[in-house]
Amino acid sequence: MGDLGPVAWPPTPIRTERLVLRAAEARDRPAFVELYASPEVHTYLGGARPRDEVERAMPAVPAPWAGSFVVALDGTMAGHILLRRAPGTPRPAAEGLADLGYLFLPHAWGHGYATEACAAALAWCEGALPGEPVVLTTQSANTASLRLAAKLGFTEVERYQEWGAEQWLGLRPPLTPSP
Q1: CA neighbor of 134 nearest in space, from 111, 108, 152
Q2: Which of 5, 21, 93, 104 is disulfide-compatible with 69, CB 3.0–4.6 A?
Q3: Cross-strand pairs, 100
Q4: What pTM value is reported for the model?
Q5: 155-160: long-range contacts at Cβ-Cβ below 8 A with a sequence spacing of 24 or more?
Q6: Residue range 76-101, pLDDT digits in tens
Q7: 113-128 vs 143-151: helix axis angle to the nearest 10?
């Protein structure tokens, strides 16, 4: 996992109009298993992992690192947002930059939760890492993810072939200048 550097973690939970972004807890483990074993969630991510494999590999408290947010709806995990560095990426435009990733359970799709949660996580990133640009990668075929990227202010840097599909790399410039 790419280190974000000296950021305070975990942050105070971030509250939006409908959601809470917080650090993972033991009670989130079943939702993490569902998230990583879901064929629907992994349509554009190379396919889901077998549930028994996810069960064996999932720690008691999933994702305890800086930049990993559980997205809770009515107290229950609906998704996961991850901000991390993109070390060793084959895309020079993304090398070493903060990278936004997100996964939501299918019941949370189509309600604007991803937009709301990602915007809150990006605002946190702007406060924790002022002047930091952020990148986002998705399959070009994932039209919902491309719409979300545009809503969040990402613009296309390049398209490239990887993992058997065309990938889209977007960049969101910093909202404030570097210190």
Answers
A1: 152
A2: 21
A3: 83
A4: 0.92
A5: 157/93, 157/94, 158/91, 158/93, 160/90, 160/91
A6: 999 999 998 866 666 777 888 899 99
A7: 50
- The CA distance from 24 to 3, in Å, is 17
Backbone angles phi, psi at 124, to 5 degrees: -60, -45
- pLDDT at position 179: 54
Q: Rounded to 5, what percent of the chain is helix, strand, coil?
A: 30, 30, 45
Report the run of H or E that residue 54 belongs to, with start and end: helix 51-57
Let me know: does 14 contact 68? Beta carbons within 8 Å.
no
Tokens, residue 115: 């937009």
Identify whether the C-beta of residue 82 lies closer than 8 Å to the C-beta of residue 124. Answer: no
- Residue 166 near residue 156, CB atoms below 8 Å: no
Tokens of 176: 């404030």
